[in-house]
Prior knowledge:
Distance between the termini: 57 Å
Family: Belongs to the MsrP family.
Signal peptide: 1-37
Protein name: Protein-methionine-sulfoxide reductase catalytic subunit MsrP
Structural class: alpha+beta
Domain Oxidoreductase molybdopterin-binding: 76-231
Number of strands: 13
Number of helices: 8
Strand content: 15-25%
Radius of gyration: 19 Å
Helix content: 10-25%
Subunit structure: Heterodimer of a catalytic subunit (MsrP) and a heme-binding subunit (MsrQ).
Largest sheet: 8 strands, mixed
Amino acid sequence: MPSTDPKWSDVTPKAAWLNRRQIMAGAAAAFATPAVAQNLSTSETANTLEEITNYNNYYEFGLDKGDPAKYAGQLTIDPWAVQIDGLVDRPGSYDLADVMRMGPVEERIYRFRCVEAWSMVIPWNGIQLSHILNKVGVQPSARYVAFETLLRPEEMPGQRQGFLDWPYREGLRLDEAMNPLTLMATGLYGESMPKQNGAPIRLVVPWKYGFKSIKSIVRISLTADQPPATWNLTNPREYGFYANVNPEVSHPRWSQATERRIGGGLFNSRQDTVMFNGYGDQVASLYAGQDLKRDF
């Protein structure tokens, strides 16, 4: 007799997902679900799993939006370790299981805004980055956090092409990294992270353009100086280090005033983009006194 429990692959709109959560809550002895961070989550309707896993920028697997879903299956993600070093008290190579024990796994439903002016709403699960940094002990001289993606061209065909200087690198100011919104995501819809979305662990910074949310992380370094960031190094005129969502600062080749929500259909009208992607109450104070047209 076939099971009546919904499978992850059956998840489509948010209503179906919520129904699944109710079923799982009723079977708590058999399932473990991450706690939902209600105060940090949007109530907007989440995109479907199909949309989230089939429309991606993950250039390590190719330039087309469908390339990550097509090619990421060959990526080996077990075993996996993250090197945490630099200005920390307890540097070392941490197994993924060790990282996941550094804080509670929570579900965060975040808006996601790409610099290309499209957007989604995504139900992540993961660990707040500040919990991880506190566990390894941040030294007083640290001011920035640098991140680095896996370099494995034999499994990541995009890395065999020369359009970026691999491995992909990104960085945050320490106060940005310690903000409660900043998440090290390990999954979607309560399940492990799909490979095309950055398995097994990736950064999510919901008030910044998506390219800041580096995928498949293998190294986190605490530094005194601003670290290199791949797109900023490649074209600093178009990609600032801060990359805060800002409808008042256009990309040199297109406006950022509006966005197209993925999944709304061919005739879906564009919607206004909101400063800091709608997270201004939580993060605007980080930039008090800064000129965000200069520090874009």
